[in-house]
Amino acid sequence: MDETIRFSISLPESLLKELDEKMINKGYASRSEFVRDLIRKELIEEKWSISGEEVFGVLALIYDHNKKELAERLIDIQHHTPINIVCATHIHIDHHNCLETIILRGTPEAIENIAIKIGGLTGIKFSKLTRAATVDK
Ligand code: NI
């Protein structure tokens, strides 16, 4: 575990006020925790912008259960990129809708590619890729 180092930063009063409001609205207990997460978020975005880095993605989907060819296409895409698929979870929401989350691992390009391929299929009603990465130990 990294040693925690304390340092001070200077901010214009209005920016500090904004920071505190956001910190409270997001449920953070301290400025330190909020600023740490802001820095991590920036580092994760940076990692996603570098080609060849290993990153993770969580793709959440809602789709039409009645479109049988869609389910087949979804499975096909996953079978053709098994190296990037860590796992998938499927729940049956109701008679017509399925929810699936697919956890992906690989380069930003590979993950974006799969997410675009899947998100563009006919019958997908919702598709959202959450970009994740490790940035500290
Ligand atoms: Ni289902």
Automatic annotation (TrEMBL):
Residue span, Ribbon-helix-helix protein CopG domain: 6-46
TM helices/strands, residue ranges: none
Alphabetical keyword list: DNA-binding, Metal-binding, Nickel, Transcription, Transcription regulation
Boundaries of every Transcription factor NikR nickel binding C-terminal domain copy: 57-130
Gene Ontology molecular-function annotations: DNA binding; DNA-binding transcription factor activity; nickel cation binding
InterPro entries: Acetolactate_synth/TF_NikR_C, ACT-like_dom_sf, Arc_rbn_hlx_hlx, CopG, CopG/NikR_regulator, Ni_resp_reg_NikR, Ribbon_hlx_hlx, TF_NikR_Ni-bd_C
Binding-site positions, Ni(2+): 79, 90, 92, 98
Biological process, per Gene Ontology: response to nickel cation
Cofactor: Ni(2+)
Note accompanying the cofactor annotation: Binds 1 nickel ion per subunit.
HAMAP family the record matches: NikR (MF_00476)
PANTHER family: NICKEL-RESPONSIVE REGULATOR
Family named by the database record: Belongs to the transcriptional regulatory CopG/NikR family.
Function noted in UniProt: Transcriptional regulator.
Protein name: Putative nickel-responsive regulator
Source organism of this protein record: Desulfurella amilsii
